[in-house]
Amino acid sequence: MLDIGKEFKLKLFINGKNVTLKPFLKNFIKQIILSMVFNLDGIKDPKKIELMIEKERR
After folding, report:
1. pLDDT at 4
2. Which of 1, 21, 29, 31 has minimal CB crowding within 10 Å?
């Protein structure tokens, strides 16, 4: 598998707290997200990618 994530760093925050990830998991998440982003039409050279997942309030 091509390592497209080597130029990118990943930080995970849960409820505002930085969560330390083991190298395997960090690389796995980067590879998945970057693979999806690079396959989007019109995306040529992303510098920063932000993904936010929030629980819906009911």
Report:
1. 72
2. 1
pTM of the model: 0.77
Tokens found for residue 22? 């083991």
Q: Which residue has 């390592």 as its token pair?
A: 3
Chain centre distance of CA 10: 6
Distance of CA 5 to the CA centre of its chain: 9
Contact between 26 and 35 under an 8 Å Cβ cutoff? The reply is no
Residues in the chain: 58
Structure tokens at 40: 């989007």
Residue 2's contacts (CB-CB under 8 Å, 6 or more residues apart) are none
Give the DSSP letter of residue 11: -
Return all residues near 47 (Cβ < 8 A) that are at least 6 apart.
none
